[in-house]
Amino acid sequence: MLNQNKTPLLDALKVNAARLHTPFYTPGHKQGEGISQPLADLLGKAVFRADLTELSDLDNLFAPQGVIQEAQQLAAEAFGALQTWFLVNGSTCGIEAAILATCGTGDKIILPRNVHSSAIAGLILSGAIPIFLNPEYDPVLDIAHNITPNAVQSALQQHPDAKAVLVVYPTYYGVCGDLSAIANITHQYNIPLLVDEAHGAHFAFHPELPTPALAAGADLTVQSIHKVLGAMTQASMLHVQGNRIDCDRISKALQLVQSTSPSYLLLASLDAARQQMALHGIMLMSRTLQLAEEARTRISQIPGLSVLEMPHLGGSPGFVALDKTRLTVTVSGLGLTGFEADEILDEKFAVTAEFASLQHLTFIISLGNTPADIEQLVQGFTTLAKEYHRSNLTVKNQVWLNLDRTLDYALELSPREAFFAVSEILPLTQTNKRICAEIVCPYPPGIPVLMPGEVITKSVLEYLQQIQAMGASISGCNDISLKTLKVVK
Predict the structure, then answer these.
(1) pTM of the predicted model, to two decimals?
(2) How far apart are CA 89 and CA 125, in angstroms?
(3) At what angle do helices 371-387 and 338-349 cross, to 10 degrees?
(4) Exposed, middle or buried, 441 (CB in 10 Å: 0-12/13-18/19+)?
(5) How many helices and strands (H and E) does the chain possess?
(6) Integer CA distances (angstroms), 451 to 192, 256, 476, in order
(7) How confident is the model at residue 35, as a pLDDT?
(8) Tens digit of pLDDT for each residue in 38-87?
(9) What is the per-residue pLDDT for 407?
(10) How far from 107 is each of 130, 147, 283, 362, CA to CA, in Å?
(11) How many CA atoms lie within 13 A of 371 on its CB side?
């Protein structure tokens, strides 16, 4: 057992920030002496004194032998990993590195369609061929959950030469699929299970939270420590266990996608966040769960509102557990869209959600929230229900709820080939049967409808036009108004 009280990287940074010396190295502001006054007024000088580079006492992120190595070893033990890497380019670079380390050009990887755009970037960088699986979908709530063990089993039977399986666990809504079953199936083919666990870094620290990905059998998992724990934005971790992942390939891949000038502020925040959770995780998560339960109970009693809960019959293969610190409130019973409710709560009541979709608002309740936050959230919804209630949803939105979501997909080129191909921009109406050269991701529901290499079909175009007319936003593509699309020439 390691001494989880220690913060080797944070301590070394503190010493070096206070050391009196004359700096002739980067960064150019020289411990805050050259920082503009407005920025210094906002943040203070202390943070800039600690904004240091790879000094001898501070180790090297890409060849750690000192305090970074020790901090990563402490994190590995705390999170239940064999080896841990600190990430300063967010979970995005971790997902990219995971794909680069397990797949090369032409190799197949099985993954859900509701992956983060970083996975698509990993496909483009690696040249891997995606075998996409549709996640389980709840048509009543209009929420995509997770891919099922049966879907993974079927995909591996059809593609036994696949090099890896990648899953999202949990989803943005806090929904967890049957990861243990997927791990067992994946390992029967002796290939690694990669997990985008960006929103599940807290799972290891309380028994009432869903099973952590590593404990469920994942070979590699990437966690955004900044999303739900106490690290600074962009600070994430990549964890590995077992022998199916080549750790040297992970290190080499991370050198391709991480900055060669890593922020020690971010690195130290990872060290501090790990210590905080190792020492006080149970207490902090117990308090967080209590706050979340209070919010869930009180909001569910407000007429016209409901909250996402585990299905009464024990769930489904795509929904076996729910992170109770993630609160999704269905507002369609008020006759409002999630977008409208989000705007009202933010502007009128200073309550800001993590994200909005057509029927829902989703909130992250974390160790940083307070009882006063929960009170303001509940009061905001109480007033929303009383003062902004409409009789029902508009006809336009009723069409959305009954929309046939079966779309035609066909991958003509690998994402890498399409991304680097000569392309042209055409009016949307002229792109039928052309090969897409960019990512088109509408929200809701947040699943990429088109990505580089896929054939654009009539059903896809109609779907995009319908959901855009209903208020969904489009991301990932060059023209977010969706009047044009980039296609392979």
Answers:
(1) 0.94
(2) 16
(3) 120
(4) buried
(5) 16, 19
(6) 24, 23, 9
(7) 95
(8) 999 999 999 999 999 999 999 999 999 999 999 999 999 999 999 999 99
(9) 65
(10) 9, 21, 45, 36
(11) 2
Please give the pLDDT value at position 123.
Answer: 96
What's the pLDDT tens digit per position in 237-277?
A: 999 999 999 999 999 999 999 999 999 999 999 999 999 99
- Angstrom distance (rounded) from CA 373 to CA 210: 24
pLDDT exceeds 60 at position 397? no
Q: CB–CB of 79/239 below 8 Å? A: yes
Residue 304: both structure tokens together? 């016209």
Instruction: Report yes or no: 409 and 448 within 8 Å, Cβ to Cβ.
Output: no
Nearest Cα residue to 106 out of 408, 449, 411: 411
Instruction: Sheet containing 236-240: give its strands across.
Output: 83-87, 236-240, 220-223, 193-196, 164-168, 108-112, 129-133
Answer whether residue 396 shows pLDDT above 60: no
| Largest interatomic CA distance in the chain | 69
How many other C-beta atoms can be found within 10 angstroms of the C-beta atom of residue 474?
A: 17
Count the residues in the chain.
489
Is residue 293 exposed (0-12), middle (13-18) or buried (19+ Cβ within 10 Å)? middle
